[in-house]
Every structure is written in structure tokens, then in C-alpha cells.
Amino acid sequence: MKLLVVICALNLSLAVGFGAFGAHALSSQLTTHALETYRTGSLYHQVHGVGALVASLAAPKISTIPAWILLVGTWIFSFSLYLLAITGTRWLGAITPIGGICLIAGYLILAWKGGSLAV
């Protein structure tokens, strides 16, 4: 479980780095639409990275499955948008929804498994 928390924390550090890279290095290099796509990837990376961290902290009492699914979903969703924005490779947009489905599934499993936790 400790390894999962470490991976989630490292993922969040990547989210900050990718966000800063987009804001500073790419802001003058990308079109407005591509920059907005990149920013969406960055926002999802940060927000759902926190969701994965929360799930990883709850993992000892419920399961590691929600945290792993949230991490994978975050990576698929965000990195497909990062690459789409930078390269313009349109087919990457078809991969993004797979990440979104993983995010939805991860939160649903977290709700199901976490429903037994007393807060």
C-alpha cells in the first residue's frame, strides 16, 4: 500500500510539472485550441490524481483496485490529450474516452467498496 501512495504522489508531481510546462513552454507554441486541449489534460491529471491518492489512502480498508483504475484512467485520459495537443495526431482523441471510462469505473468501485467505511 505504501508503494501505491508513493506512485500517486509522484503522479501528482508529474501533474504539476506538465501543467507548468504547458503554461510556460507551450503557451506560445500551440494554437488556442491545442492549448485548451492540453490544459484539459492537465486539469484532469491534477484533479483525478488527488482522487487516486485519496483512494490509495483508503486502500488498506477497502481495496487497491479503485486507486489503480483511477491512476490508469488519469494517465490514459491526460497523456492522450497532452500528445494530441503537442503532435496534432487526431486518432489520439479516440483513446481519451477509454481514460474517462476508467475514471468513472474507478469512482464507482470506490463508492461501492468505500460505502462500508465509517467516516
Characterise this structure.
This protein is mostly helical and 119 residues long. It has a single domain, classed as Four Helix Bundle (Hemerythrin (Met), subunit A). It is 77% helix and 0% strand. The protein has 4 helices and no strands. The longest helix has 27 residues. The radius of gyration is 15 Å and the shape is elongated. The two termini are 20 Å apart. The mean pLDDT is 94.
Would you identify the CATH architecture? Up-down Bundle
How many H/I helical runs?
Answer: 4
The major beta sheet can be summarized as:
none
How much is the radius of gyration in Å? 15 Å
The topology string of helices and strands comes to HHHH
Strand content: under 5%
Name the poorly predicted regions.
none
- Percent of residues in helical segments? over 70%
Query: Which CATH C-level class is it?
Result: Mainly Alpha
Distance between the termini: 20 Å
- Provide the structure class: mainly alpha
Q: What is the strand tally? A: 0
**Tally of discrete structural domains:** 1
Q: Per the principal axes of the C-alpha atoms, what is the gross shape?
A: elongated
Q: Remind me, CATH topology?
A: Four Helix Bundle (Hemerythrin (Met), subunit A)
How would you state the average pLDDT, rounded?
Answer: 94
Summarize the structure.
The chain has about 120 residues and is an all-alpha fold.
